[in-house]
UniProtKB/TrEMBL annotation:
It comes from the Bacteria. This is Putative dithiol-disulfide oxidoreductase (DUF899 family). InterPro entries: DUF899_thioredox (IPR010296), Thioredoxin-like_sf (IPR036249). Pfam families: DUF899 (PF05988).
Length: 257
């Protein structure tokens, strides 16, 4: 017996059952794509054991190699390339408070990337507990990255600066003109310790259908996937570094309780 909801019409139930069949097929396709991804031949070995600026285990700045980002007993590393500084044509408002506001707008981070990291910050400890490794890499100096993290109250994502290496350029997190690009990149470690490229969000570089953005990290974003569940769908909306409404009001109310 199928599911029904109060006062639904027969037309609604018929259309919903048709949609359910599409959703089942989408689930199958998502599983098939994941299987095909895992079946990729070995990728190229990394050309360099890149050295990043980050925070060491003692809480002080340290130089950290890519190979050191694999914790003992783990063999997968997901790297999000944070557009910091933002794309040069991004005219969205600058942050007006916090440490981020001390930077000129063109040197502030991409609001959309920042919104995605807001969401991934909560997921990071669960991902790592299950055996993954996740880091965010930006071209900006480490002190600027940490300032944004304090503004956003990021607690879990590991932040690294690639200001002193070619990692982003080599793995398409930066184009030939120095523009930063929001590519998700994945690496694997072989049993002999060799680190190889595994996968990147190349949808970003593929032509999108009319009316769609590339959605290179689309399946990861709770924000946009939530809107896909609503009657109106995705709004004409651009993420911002700060909002004049909503943000902060609810936490204050809870504290008052």
């Amino acid at each position: 017996m199928g599911v029904t909801f109060p006062n639904e019409s027969t037309d609604y139930r018929h259309a919903r059952d048709v949609l359910l069949a599409q959703e089942i097929e989408l689930r199958r396709q998502m599983e098939a794509v994941a299987v095909a991804r895992r079946a990729l031949p070995p990728g190229g070995r990394i050309p360099d054991d890149y050295e990043f600026d980050g925070m060491g285990t003692d809480g002080t700045p340290a130089r950290i190699r890519l190979s050191q980002l694999f914790r003992d007993g783990t063999n997968s590393l997901v790297v999000y390339n944070y557009m910091f500084p933002r794309y040069r044509t991004d005219t969205r408002e600058a942050a007006s408070s916090g440490e981020t506001a001390r930077l000129p707008r063109d040197e502030q981070p991409c609001p959309s990337c920042t919104a995605l990291i807001d969401q991934l910050d909560a997921a990071a400890p669960h991902f790592e507990a299950a055996g993954g490794n996740f880091v965010v890499v930006a071209k900006a100096p480490l002190e600027r990255l940490l300032g944004v993290a304090r503004d956003r109250n990021w607690q879990h994502v590991r932040l690294l600066s690639s200001a002193g290496n070619n990692f982003r350029r080599d793995y398409h997190g930066e184009d030939e003109h120095g523009q930063q690009l929001p590519v998700m990149t994945v690496f694997g470690r072989d049993p002999d310790g060799t680190i190889r490229f595994f996968w990147a969000s190349e949808l970003m570089f593929a032509p999108a259908d009319p009316g769609q953005d590339p959605r290179a990290a689309g399946t990861l974003e709770p924000l946009w996937n939530l809107f896909d569940l609503t009657p109106a769908g995705r709004p004409d909306f651009n993420e911002q570094l700060q909002y004049r409404c909503c943000s902060g009001a609810q936490p204050r109310a809870l504290k008052e309780l």
